[in-house]
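Lab notebook, design round three. We kept the backbone fixed and only want residue identities now. Task for the bench partner: fill in a sequence for the structure below.
Input structure tokens:
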């Protein structure tokens, strides 16, 4: 990596490790070398110093999105690592972990290394990859060096692709012997398929065939039964299990609010399941069709509360682009998945700016909400997945940073989208903050007024587990 000299980000409102304070951060090449409060700042100068005045802006660690589908290889009509990583840094996401349901499926370390090579050539954000479990590859997974991949992805319900694992013997072997975090998509397959057949018989080809059927087919029962079974297996074998994209209030009853380091069962939520509910199908239809489905407003509100209660441990997008043409098909033919990585951070901090709080009430909310979002989108992903030297603003850590400007109108337009698929269900939405800059390994990967820097300074994520 080329020498990047010394950069000063000064007068920032730093959000990190539960605190908010005004300070300066110094970056030398790809590393944070000094952090200081403005109140106790001492001269730190060099002839090579570059200075960025971040007055009035929030500086936080770069977002680590541990659940994305960048569609490469084999599905590049929808997305690729170049286009989606550019959308990522424009949204303040400096590192991502990609899922294995591509073509071919990433079920061997050789196929994973091929994806690493693709990312090295294209990605402007740091990259990591999960290995996918199948009914027949458990022995190979268990024999693979755990430091070479982020986690094991386990589909306990069929979604995009064909990676359903439903063999009890294979599941017992995986849960009893896994030396890596298992990330599970939990929907009970027989419930989903029975619902699908019933609704197809009743509704296919009629005016009732709309996306409003989706939460009836991929319903609360399907999620709860599958999540219950997965957690029961994890508790039996003391397995480290992470439940992907929790979508129902009932599943929350299966989770605990212990500190992260004491949990062996953890959970993720997506911004989409926090933002939309079943009332939005009337306007957005298949554009918000995803698996598991977006459900009732009661579920959405329970998920928001679970962020505060400590039941949810990470926020990740499940960024899953499809072409607009495929989404415009009839409901039963349209694929499930939503592109969202470019706006995940602004979605999650919007409650801070879209409220009636004033004065001390607003400050109290800010001092609670921003550190919580940073913990769920930066600190906890790094800790849970064992990602080395990222996810925190610490001296000696990689300089992956996101600078957010609050209090500005930021309307989502089709022209501003960087996704290859070119659409978002958020089009027309106005947020009240924006990502001003994103730094990847000390280099400016994105600047609001200049766009994405196409020079590649990204790295493969390294793991301690």
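Proposed sequence:
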């Amino acid at each position: 990596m080329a020498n990047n000299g010394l950069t000063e980000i000064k007068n920032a409102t730093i959000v990190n490790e539960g605190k908010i304070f005004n300070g300066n951060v110094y970056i030398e090449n790809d590393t944070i070398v000094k952090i200081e409060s403005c109140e106790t700042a001492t001269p730190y100068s060099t002839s090579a110093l570059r200075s960025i005045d971040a007055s009035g802006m929030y500086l936080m660690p770069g977002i680590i999105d541990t659940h994305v589908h960048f569609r490469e290889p084999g599905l590049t009509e929808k997305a690729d690592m170049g286009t989606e990583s550019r959308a990522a840094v424009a949204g303040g996401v400096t590192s991502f972990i990609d899922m294995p349901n591509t073509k071919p499926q990433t079920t061997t370390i050789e196929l994973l290394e091929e994806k690493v090579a693709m990312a090295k050539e294209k990605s402007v954000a740091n990259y990591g990859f999960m290995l996918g479990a199948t009914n027949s590859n458990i022995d190979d997974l268990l024999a693979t060096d755990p430091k070479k991949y982020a986690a094991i992805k386990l589909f306990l319900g069929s979604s995009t692709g064909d990676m359903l694992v439903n063999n009890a013997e294979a599941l017992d072997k995986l849960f009893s012997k896994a030396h890596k975090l298992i990330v599970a998509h939990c929907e009970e397959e027989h419930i989903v398929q029975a619902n699908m057949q019933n609704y197809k018989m009743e509704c296919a080809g009629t005016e009732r065939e709309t996306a409003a059927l989706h939460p009836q087919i991929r319903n609360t029962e399907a999620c709860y039964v599958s999540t219950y079974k997965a957690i029961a297996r994890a508790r039996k074998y003391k397995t480290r299990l992470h439940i992907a994209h929790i979508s129902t209030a009932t599943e929350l009853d299966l989770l605990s609010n212990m500190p992260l380091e004491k949990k062996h069962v953890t959970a993720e939520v997506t911004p989409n399941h926090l933002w939309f509910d079943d009332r939005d199908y009337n306007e957005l239809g298949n554009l918000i069709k995803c698996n598991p489905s977006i459900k009732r407003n009661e579920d959405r509100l329970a998920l928001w509360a679970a962020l505060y209660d400590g039941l949810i441990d990470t926020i990740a997008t499940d960024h899953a682009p499809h072409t607009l043409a495929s989404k415009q098909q009839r409901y039963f033919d349209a694929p499930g998945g939503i592109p969202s990585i470019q706006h995940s951070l602004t979605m999650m901090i919007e409650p801070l700016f879209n409220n009636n709080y004033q004065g001390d009430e607003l400050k109290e909310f800010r001092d609670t909400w921003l550190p919580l979002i940073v913990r769920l989108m930066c600190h906890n992903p790094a800790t849970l997945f064992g990602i080395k030297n990222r996810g925190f603003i610490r001296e000696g850590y990689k300089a992956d940073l996101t600078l957010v400007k609050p209090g500005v109108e930021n309307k989502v337009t089709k022209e501003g989208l960087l996704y290859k698929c070119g659409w978002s269900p958020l089009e027309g939405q106005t947020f009240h903050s924006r990502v001003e800059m994103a730094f990847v390994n000390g280099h400016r990967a994105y600047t609001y007024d200049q766009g994405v820097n196409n020079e590649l300074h990204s790295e493969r994520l390294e793991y301690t587990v």
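Keep this in mind before ordering anything: The mean pLDDT is 95.
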